[in-house]
């Protein structure tokens, strides 16, 4: 999809949902490209620097339509191919894309209702697809062993027997995912459960999925990738949903924001420019037991945090910047919210109590997972002194049990540790109870340098082999990944 179509889509979704006059439809783009300018060269000529912040409307990835709905499942087809996307105004950037767009189309699912996705690989190379945050049968998890050769396709079965949550699908080819995800193979998959409706959380156009990722570009608009085994790739340009530091017009309403850090390796700390708190309602695995007010939101690669922001507290015309307190210069701001006068809808306040935590079986094993870097015979990242080997089972666990895993970081880098197929609770950061923001279900947890984080995975789901790994993609690729076999 080219840029003009992408913008048209955004506009259409605004038209569908907005009850406002045309004048207040768009955020204040300054002297950005008038929509009458069509060709890339012409756009480039009037756009000024494509890196100027807040000059592009926030794109919303379109929701994918099922090819077929049966009584028991929704069926989708997705094709992966190489194409161009207008990530920078006026430039055609070669990308890898699901359905030709970056990010790929959003799949919306209902808890308890099955989704089947046929993924067709029209890329010139082997790939596979992992649904991050899914409780899915091992054969549908996107284990790096289950590749889709070029020209082939694979059918993924997602029963969605899990809580409503922000999931995402992305490439998981071993040694390659840092580059393939970077080039565009990432998209949202949103599971909704009834409780979210009962709680009257903001929805429809008041619910914004925000995929944040840093990139770098060459002068011709192509993506620049530099391999850095230590830090992982760190770009100089912040994108949200595939647009450089976009802005979005928000009404004076409560909004639900679904933050996903889809960066290869960059850690984020999000905060609103006026310093006010956001109400966090969910983490990776869905609703928190209790909502919590947070002024700063830490988000490492692959983590998700959902918040409700009350824009009724601002006067029309207010421009709020979403900052990244861990960034500097061009990576210090992420996007902008332009507040306009109110629409019709009104969502209630976020309740303090959201979703009770269920009682879990007693812990049946305790394990240490040591995170460290080896230099001999080659530089690589390891778990418990070993690099990834698909033919080796590192851990065996029983279905239906819980365990204690201690992620012991002996390195000077942050490692967001991720377990496939199951969720865990964070029990302790060092010797401390985790902050309120981390007291719900998680599948990825940040482990700071020289820190030990204790988590409690609950092996409720499907038997089989699943991987766990660092989600800094360069670390996971080289070779900070291990494998567990969960048996009934
Ligand atoms: Cu999001 Cu194994 O990854
Ligand atoms: Cu995952
Ligand atoms: Cu790491």
Q: What would you say this structure looks like, in words?
A:
With 488 residues, the protein is mostly beta strands. It has five helices and 32 strands. The chain has helices at 3-17, 40-47, 177-182, 194-198, 473-477, and strands spanning 68-69, 73-85, 93-98, 107-110, 114-121, 129-132, 153-158, 165-171, 186-192, 207-215, 237-240, 243-244, 247-251, 254-261, 268-272, 278-283, 286-294, 297-299, 304-310, 319-324, 333-340, 363-374, 380-383, 395-398, 402-409, 415-419, 423-429, 441-442, 444-447, 452-458, 464-470, 481-487. The model is unreliable at 1-25 (pLDDT under 50). The structure holds CU-O-CU linkage (C2O) and copper (II) ion (CU) (2 copies).
């Amino acid at each position: 999809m080219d840029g003009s179509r992408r913008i048209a889509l955004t506009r259409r979704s605004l038209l569908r949902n907005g009850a406002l006059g045309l004048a207040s439809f768009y955020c204040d783009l300054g002297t950005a490209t008038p929509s009458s300018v069509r060709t890339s060269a012409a756009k480039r000529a009037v756009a000024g620097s494509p890196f100027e912040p807040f000059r592009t409307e926030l794109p919303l990835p379109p929701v994918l339509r099922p090819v077929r709905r049966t009584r028991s499942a929704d069926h989708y087809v997705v094709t992966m191919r190489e194409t161009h996307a207008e990530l920078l105004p006026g430039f055609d950037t070669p990308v890898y894309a699901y359905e030709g767009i970056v990010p790929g189309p959003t799949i919306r699912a209902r808890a308890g209702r099955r989704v089947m996705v046929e993924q067709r690989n029209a890329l010139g190379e082997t790939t596979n697809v992992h649904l991050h945050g899914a409780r899915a049968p091992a054969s549908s998890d996107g284990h790096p062993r289950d590749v889709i050769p070029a020209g082939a396709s694979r059918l993924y079965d997602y029963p969605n027997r899990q809580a409503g949550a922000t999931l995402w699908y992305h490439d998981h080819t071993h040694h390659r995912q840092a580059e393939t995800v970077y080039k565009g193979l990432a998209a949202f998959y949103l599971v909704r459960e009834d409780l979210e409706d009962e709680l009257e959380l903001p929805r429809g156009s008041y619910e914004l999925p925000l995929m944040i990722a840093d990139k770098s570009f060459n002068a011709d608009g192509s993506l620049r990738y530099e391999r850095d085994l230590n830090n992982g790739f760190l770009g100089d340009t912040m994108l949200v949903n595939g647009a450089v530091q976009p802005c979005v017009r928000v009404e004076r309403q409560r909004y639900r924001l679904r933050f996903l850090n889809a960066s290869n390796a960059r850690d984020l700390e999000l905060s609103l420019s006026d310093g006010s708190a956001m109400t966090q309602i969910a983490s990776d695995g869905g609703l928190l037991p209790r909502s919590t007010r947070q002024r700063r939101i830490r988000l490492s690669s692959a983590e998700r945090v959902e918040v409700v922001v009350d824009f009724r507290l601002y006067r029309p015309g207010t421009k709020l910047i979403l900052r990244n307190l861990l960034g500097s210069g061009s990576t210090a701001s992420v996007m902008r919210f332009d507040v306009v006068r109110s629409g019709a809808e009104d969502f209630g306040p976020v309740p303090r109590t959201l979703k009770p935590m269920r009682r879990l079986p007693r812990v049946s094993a305790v394990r240490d997972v040591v995170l460290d870097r080896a230099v001999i015979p080659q530089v690589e990242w390891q778990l418990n002194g070993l690099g990834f080997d698909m033919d080796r089972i590192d851990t065996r666990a029983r279905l239906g049990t819980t365990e204690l895993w201690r992620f012991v970081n002996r390195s000077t880098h942050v490692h967001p540790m991720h377990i496939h197929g199951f969720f865990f609770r964070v029990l302790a950061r060092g010797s401390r109870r985790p902050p309120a923001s981390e007291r719900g279900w998680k599948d990825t947890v940040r482990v700071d340098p020289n820190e030990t984080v204790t988590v409690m995975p609950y092996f409720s789901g499907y038997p089989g082999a699943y991987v766990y790994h660092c989600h800094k993609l360069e670390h996971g690729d080289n070779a900070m990944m291990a494998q567990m076999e969960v048996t009934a």
